[in-house]
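Listing S7. Sequence submitted for prediction.
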Amino acid sequence: MSKQHKSLALAGAAAFAIFASARSVSSVSNASVLTYHNDNARTGQNLSETILRPDSVNASTFGKVGFFATDGKVDAQPLLLPGVPVAGQGTHNVVFVVTEHDSVYAFDSDSGAVLWQVSTLGANELPSDGRNCSQVIPEIGITSTPVIDPSRGPNGVIYVVAMSKNGSTYIHRLHALDVTSGAELFGGPKVIQASVPGTGAGSSGGTLPFDPKQYEERAGLLLTNGKLVTVWSSHCDIDPYTGWIMSYNPGTLAQTGVLNVTPNGSRGAMWMAGAGPAADAAGNVYVLDGNGTFDTTMNGSGFPASGNFGNAFLKISTASGLAVADYFATFDTVTKSNADSDLGSGGTLVLPDLVDSASQTRHLAVGAGKDAHMYVVDRDAMGKWNASSNAIYQDITGAIGGAVFSMPAYFNRMLYYGGAGTTLKAFAIAGARVSTPAFSHSATSFTYPGTTPGISASGTANAIVWAIENSNPAVLHAYDALDLSHELYNSNQAAGGRDTFGAGNKFITPTIVNGRVYVGTATGVAVFSRFAPDIPTNLTIRKPN
C-alpha cells in the first residue's frame, strides 16, 4: 500500500451520499472537536451547538444524510477541525477518521470528499492480527482516538498511535501528521519502546521491557502540560502484561516519561472503554487501571511498598516525567482483581470546581468500572487504601444499575452514566455531591457495553444527550438533557430503514458538532443532520447531489 494517497473525487466509495428527498444543513459555525470527548476533562460536552435543538430534532426534520466509507473498522471517535487549508483544494472543515486498517482520512465535512488519506503501515507490513483476543477484531491498526494540536507545526498536527506487524514482529509507532496533507512531521514516525527496573511479568534480570506484541493503545491520546500521554492495555488478559503509561514531547516525538504501575507484579493495564485519560488544569492525569497486583504493604507515605497499583484510581503527575501523585483503591481491591471485577473497564471524568455546603471549593473526579460503584474522588486527597473501609469522598452503590464499560458525560451540574444492560441515567450534582437516585433515565436499556453519551448545547440552553445503542442495527438516540424519559429521536423511527447505519460498534462515541452527528461503524462513519425544510432562513443550504 502506498504511504500517501490523495483524492479529489466527490463520488465513489467514500463520497458523501445525500438523500435525494432531503437537503442537509451545511456547517455554519466553526466549533472544533480536537480530542476524545471534546476536552481534557472528558466531559463530552459541546456548548457551541446552535443548529441542533430539542424542538427541532425529530424523525421528520433530522436523520442520516450520508456515509463516509473507509477501508476498515472505525473504533476511534471522529475529530473535526474547521478552516483547514488543503493544498490545491482550498479551505475545508475537515473530519479526521482513523481505521483499524491503519489508515488516516481527512474528509470534507460538507461534501464528504476525501481530501487526503495516508497509511501508517511501513514497507511489507500489515495491521496486527487480533492477538487471539476477541476484543478488537479482525485486525488491530489504529484503535485509540487521536488528538489534534492546531497550533503545532506549520499548519497543525494530528497525533496517531498505530499498530502493525511484519511477519511475527509487532510494532507500535507514534505519528505526527500535518493536518493539511497527512505528511509526517518532526522526523516521525517514532517507534514506541520502553523499559523500567522491575521484576514483574515479562521481566528479565531486573528489567521489565515493553513487549509490543502484548499491548494495544486503546485509550484516547491526551495532550496536557506540554506532553503527549499514552496509556496501554493488553489483549484480553493474555499474560504476561503490566500497566504502562508513556509521555512524549509533541514537538520532537522524544520520549519524556515512562511509568509502569505494576513493575514488580502483573496485569494492571488500562482499557477504559477507549476513553482518553482525563487531565486537570495543572496537567495531572487520571486513569482507572484494571485487575492486577496491588501491594497491601504500604510505605510511610501510604503508597504500595513495591510500586504495584493494580485496580486503582490513579492521579499521575506530569510535572517531571511521570509519577503516581495520589490514588484510591477499594478496601477489597485484591479480591476484586481476583474476581475480574475491576475499575479498568470505565473512563474517568474531571468535574469542574464545585462549592460544597460549607462554601468550600471541591476539586473532584469520577469513575466507575465492573463493580458498578460510582467512585467520586477528591483530587486533593483521593483516599489511598486501608484494609477495612473506602476512605473516599463518595462511594455510590446501586445507582448506575449495571457494570460500566463506558464513561460518563457532564453538563450543567448533571452527570450522565450509561451502564451495561441498564438505562442511561442523569444524576444531579448539588452541594458538590452527586445526588441519588437518578434525576431521570431513558426508557431504553443499553446492552453491553452500555453507552458513552455526548452532549450538545448552546451555552446552558437547548441541551441534547446523544447515545449509541450497540445493537444490530445500531441505534443513535437523542434525549432531552433535562429529562431523559423524553426521547427526541432515534435512528429506527423513520420508515423503511431510512436512518439505519449498520451493526453496533462496541465502544464508539458520537461526535456532535456544527449541526451534525458523526458515528463510527465497522465500515466507515455515518453522518446525521437536520434536513433543509426545517432550518432557519439565515443558514446556508447545500443543494442535494
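Caption to Listing S7: primary sequence and predicted C-alpha cells for the chain studied. The chain has one domain: 4-534. The first strand starts at residue 4 and ends at 5.
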